[in-house]
Design brief:
414 residues; alpha+beta; three-stranded antiparallel β-sheet; four-stranded antiparallel β-sheet; 38% strand; 8 helices
Length: 414
């Protein structure tokens, strides 16, 4: 017999069934829980602004050893100082000194790094490794490591084969980047060959330069380790990646045969311009660029005559072109046959020059009060074109001025 109690039981059973069905349906079609909100990324800290109001516009920094030099440069770079020109000089090996003229660039920071040119390029070179990190090549320095001196040993002839073969000649690179930039803006190639008796630079270095893609230009000429009758020669090529369609420029490597000055001046009449050059032992090598004619002749001035002849050459219409690097061997503390290169140009602005002898501060310190003349000229718009050492530290400063007179109106320099 069906009673009210049985009816309530049926209702309870039906309700339970419906609840179970609804739960199952909800589970089969439910959406995943909403993820917890992520905290907003913390913005990078704003670079600390440095008040440079009372900072010197230019400084001279001298350090002993390359590691200390780069460390001191980074300390100054954090304050906004960039290297304008630098040079190495003095003792060889670890005691060599490095000097740089620094110019203040307010609102920016600079970082510096160094690396050594490898003895074997089988695994490549460090130039593009640093370029991919935003660093560009700033300077190269020749390094000579001499065998230890044997005190009390029997005297040896001036030309000692053992000393020759145990002398190491190499190069180190200095890199710079601005404001922590990580984007690559330059690409490099390193071409190698040898100069000496029986060696032909035209078959090695010249061929490689000719085959380089358009846009690559030689910026450094380096010398490497000696062999029995030859020396290593390297050329650094650089390309600016921001240039869309660079033009192909013809470059030429010239090794001195009899008279380097005569040969260069003959080529100048054909439209070549001096790019770089140097000497190692008895060999001189020069890099030239094919340009429109405009240079009548070149003069190669010994560095120790610069104080007397620099102003006379400028007055005669010559403009400074750069240094021709000398050789540093184990018998001397100064480079041999370092020269200043001048050209007499037919067109372009006349440049004003000043050559200053700079007082050397203690390593790791920068000179200030003693550089009042350099500070004054920097305030007048002069820039440091070159820094070199010849019985003291010297700076060549340059400033463009008025238009150039005709080449026929210039008095010849005697």
């Amino acid at each position: 017999m069906f009673t009210v109690r049985n009816f309530k039981a049926l209702l309870l059973l039906a309700a339970s069934f419906l609840i179970l069905q609804s739960n199952a349906a909800a589970q089969s079609g439910r959406t995943p829980p909403r993820p917890a909100p992520r905290p907003a990324p913390t913005p990078a800290p704003t670079p600390e602004l440095i008040d440079t109001t009372n900072f010197e516009k230019v400084k001279l920094l001298v350090s002993r050893g390359l590691d200390d030099f780069v460390r001191d440069l980074n300390e100054q770079g954090r304050l906004g100082y960039r290297v304008e020109k630098s040079v190495s000089y003095g003792d060889k090996d670890e005691g060599r000194r490095y000097a740089a003229v620094l110019r203040l660039d307010p609102g920016h920071k600079y970082e510096y790094a160094q690396d050594r040119m490898p003895d074997n390029l089988l695994y490549g070179h460090p130039l593009n490794y640093h370029a991919r990190r935003g660093y560009n090549l700033l300077e190269t320095y020749a390094v000579t490591q001499c065998p230890p001196v044997e005190y009390g040993a029997e005297s040896k002839p001036p030309w000692d084969l053992d000393k020759w073969l145990n002398t190491v000649k190499s190069n180190v690179f200095l890199f710079m980047r601005r404001d922590g930039a990580a984007e690559q803006t330059r690409e490099y190639q390193l071409l190698t060959g040898r100069v000496g008796w029986g060696e032909n630079l035209q078959e090695t270095v010249q061929t490689a330069i000719d085959e380089a893609p358009p846009g690559f230009r030689p910026i450094r000429l380096l010398f490497g380790p000696p062999g029995l009758v030859s020396f290593g020669v390297s050329v650094v090529l650089e390309m600016d990646l921001s240039v869309g369609a660079p033009a192909k420029v013809r470059y030429q490597v010239v090794k001195e045969t009899k008279d380097l000055k005569k040969e260069i001046n003959q080529l100048a009449a054909q439209g070549v311009r001096y790019v770089s050059g140097g000497r190692i032992d008895a060999f001189k090598v020069v890099l030239l660029a094919q340009r429109a004619a405009g240079v009548s002749d070149y003069i190669f001035l010994d560095d120790n005559k610069s104080a007397k002849e620099f102003d006379r050459l400028v007055a005669a219409g010559y403009s400074y072109q750069g240094m021709m690097a000398g050789d540093l061997d184990c018998g001397r503390d100064e480079v041999v046959s370092q020269k200043l290169v001048f050209a007499r140009e037919a067109a372009g602005p006349i440049r004003r020059y000043k050559i200053l002898s700079l007082p050397e501060p203690k390593p790791g310190k920068h000179s200030s009060a003693a550089l009042s003349e350099l500070q004054r000229l920097a305030g007048e718009g002069f820039e440091v074109r070159d820094l070199f050492y010849s019985y003291g530290l010297h700076a060549i400063l340059e400033k463009p001025s008025e238009a150039r007179a005709s080449i026929n109106e210039i008095v010849d320099f005697k």
